[in-house]
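Tutorial handout. Part one gives the primary structure; part two gives the three-dimensional structure as tokens.
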Amino acid sequence: GMSTKFFTCSLSILYRGKDSAGEIQGGPMYFIMEGLGKSWKPLAVFFSVAGLVGALPVFNVNQLTQAIRDILLVPNGIPTSFGTDFIIGLILCILTSIVILGGLTRISKTASRLVPAMVVLYFFSVLSILFLNFEELPKYISLIFTDAFSADNYKGSPMFGGVLGGLILLGIRRGAFSNEAGVGTAPMAHGAAKTSSPTREGLVAMLGPFIDTIVVCTMTALVILVTGVWETTADNGVTLTANAFSASLPGIGKYLLLLCIFIFSVSSLLSYSYYGTKCLSFLMGAHNKHYYNYFYLLSILIGATLSIDIILNLIDGFFALMAIPTMIATLTLAPKVMKEAKKYFKELKEDFKV
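Part two.
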């Protein structure tokens, strides 16, 4: 994931293009056109079409709705139904519209305030739980490695390499949710960076998968394991995590988690609209990109009311479609990135000598 992020985000700076308004843009559709040539435009169009759906916030909204329902409403005796899910979606739709209709500047300013707060609060909560259960840590760290490829935990299909192949595919799919490596969304954001160094931007981008997947996801898994809730309930997803927080931090644990989920989900809602507008801008011109925001806001209502299984299948499918052109272009242009990286590190080494 980290190496993929390095190559794709380096390319987003190395091969930037211009939209119909003459503004500099970055992302897979542009490094396909600028790096591979105009004859590869169908591949760029393919990515942009898939990106229109892949950038929809249905998964984040669905998980936030589930968290509000299971952590806040049900425990307090408030009945839940399609109507309550719709109301939650409507509130999120209104909050999101205030920000995304203001454009990239307002998005970046809002997200830059929300994300650090979410990270600090979540890390503080998780570290507190792990400290309270530190005697269980060695056993469960070992369990993660010993059971990672166990046939007892996954029924594989011969078509996809049996248990081992199935587990690898599942890991890739969930990794895409976690860090977006190879999907093509991150290069669109990094392509807007005010830098002329592709390698430097690629190195910065590499931190994302490490923090998201290696640090945050591992810490979350350990919280679920050390508290033992995974053995006493059939719940999964955000509800299982909420049970773990409640078990170690009675009273406030689940509400701290809900606040973290809310901040993370809202910040994601704000950034993903930017990806979708860039895709529509490439397909239909920069003057039409704002129309995507209305479709995006409608999808928030849809995401709040659909089942998680439908959501996962939808996003899995379109993330895969986005990854195909992204990875074809990245593998083809990889030598260009390596050449640029060697040049960068050579210059860096010479600067240190001076």
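Part three, for discussion. The first helix runs from residue 2 to 14. Strands lie at 17-18, 24-25.
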